[in-house]
Amino acid sequence: MSTHASSPPPSGLVPRFGVFIGAVKRALGETFSLRQMRVDGNAVAVAPLFLRLFDHLTATQRRFAVLHARFVAGTLATAPRRSPAPRQAAEQASAEGAIAQGTIEGAKPEQKPARRAPAIPPGAVLLTEFGLRMFSHLQALLEDPEMREFLAAAPQAGRILRPLWRKLSPDVLPDILRLPPRPRKPRPPRPPKPPRPARPPAGSGPPRMRRVTLPDGTRSWEPTPCYPLGEKPPRLRRSRADQWPEPEPEAPRRLRPVPARQPPRPPNPERRLSDYNWIGRLFMR
To answer: Is residue 109 part of a domain?
Structure first.
């Protein structure tokens, strides 16, 4: 009986990452082959997605290896990318505005092309479409001390690993792959408020007006009287003639006397019972 010694796992970070990507490709190919063998596998419909995912995994492995090589060589770019020169941006904006307004002769405003659908749909497509449960292997690779040191020195690697995590797992990103919170832009200082105008002293300037009702029922304006502070204003005394005349009292109505109720007549004892026989004959008809 011959025994085959298993090869030891690779020691470098890039070889371990390559082994992981190779395992994902292998599982993806096996799942696609099983779909081709099944009648209800619908392999023709998922074939374009399979090819795009295969190319994406290959590009991810290549970009990771190139970035790690630059990290080892010490040639990582530390300064952020500069935006294009403001002069070029201003010229491009003025040219686009001129074309949109039709000021340039013979130039027609170009229609904005419709946004194409992404090649790979968002979400954990490797899990939902092909049933690959390999995000735990990626989680173990992220917890490696060498990977943590690499991510701390090269945050650009998060752009490579975050899409890979989202295609493998429906969970939220681990803390090591999350972007740091952006610093808030400082608000411009508010201009100082203009000082309020000083109030004029009491008794200076035109008096305030108030709305009053005259004795004839009309509304008018009159100056507001100034009373000493803390005292109640005196009540306005009106003469008897300025007030509305009181209505005359109505004469009391005369009610008719209610006649007294007469008591019922007592039965006549002298009347015989035979005198009431006509009532019975009335019902016999």
So the answer is: no
Place of tokens 């508010």: 190
Q: Which domain holds residue 155?
A: 10-75+120-173
Output the six-digit token pair for 217: 């029922």
Give domain status of residue 156, yes or no: yes
Q: Give, for 126, the enclosing helix (H) or strand (E).
A: helix 125-128
| Of the candidates 170, 122, 165, the residue with the CA atom closest to the CA atom of residue 140 | 165
* Strand, coil or helix: 251: coil
CA distances from 80 to 23, 156, 182, 186, 277 (A): 35, 11, 15, 20, 130
Residue 232 lies in a domain: no
Q: Is residue 229 part of a domain?
A: no
Using left for φ > 0, alpha for ψ between -120 and 50, and beta otherwise, residue 76 falls in beta
- Burial of 70 from C-beta contacts in 10 A (0-12 / 13-18 / 19+): middle
pLDDT digits (tens, 9 = 90+) for 90-141: 555 555 555 445 444 444 555 666 666 567 888 888 888 888 888 888 999 9
With beta carbons less than 8 A apart as the criterion, state whether 65 and 18 touch: yes
Instruction: Give the largest Cα separation in the chain, rounded.
Output: 150
Which amino acid is present at 107? A
- State pLDDT tens for residues 129-185: 888 888 888 999 999 999 999 999 888 899 999 999 999 988 888 888 888 888 888
CB 46 within 8 A of CB 35: yes
Number of domains the chain is built from: 1
Contacts by 39-43, CB closer than 8 A, 24 or more apart:
none
> Would you give the distance in Å from CA 71 to the centre of its chain?
42
Give me the residues paired with residue 212 across strands.
220
pTM above 0.70, yes or no: no
Q: Which residues contact 35 (CB under 8 A, 6 or more apart)?
A: 41, 42, 43, 46
SS3 285: coil
